[in-house]
């Protein structure tokens, strides 16, 4: 009987001492501004500007006129 009460007391003690943690959080929308495409497009246009210059130069050489 003593062992039974001791086991019951130990069980109740373990159950009673378990901490409970509750976490409250809010789900909010995330707003992201993406400027990467604009920057990449701008850099690509600057990089390939030399092609436009080459086409203009070729048209000047073939026609003998600028424009």
Could you characterize what this model shows?
The chain has 67 residues and is mostly helical. It has a domain at 29-67. It contains 3 helices and no strands. The chain starts with a helix and ends with a helix. The model has no long low-confidence stretch (mean pLDDT 76).
The first-to-last residue Cα distance is 109 Å
Enumerate the spans where pLDDT stays under 50 for 5 or more consecutive residues.
none
Strand content: under 5%
User: How many beta-strand elements?
Assistant: 0
Helix content: 55-70%
Rg (CA only): 38 Å
Structural class: mainly alpha
What is the 3D form?
A: rod-shaped
Major β-sheet, in short? none
Give me the strand/helix succession: HHH
How would you state the average pLDDT, rounded?
Answer: 76
Number of helices, where a helix is a run of at least 4 consecutive DSSP H or I residues:
3
């Amino acid at each position: 009987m003593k062992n039974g009460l001791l086991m019951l007391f130990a069980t109740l003690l373990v159950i009673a001492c378990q901490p409970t943690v509750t976490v409250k959080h809010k789900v909010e929308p995330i707003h992201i501004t993406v400027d990467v495409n604009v920057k990449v497009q701008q850099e690509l246009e600057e990089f390939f500007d030399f092609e436009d210059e080459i086409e203009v130069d070729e048209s000047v050489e073939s026609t003998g006129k600028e424009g």
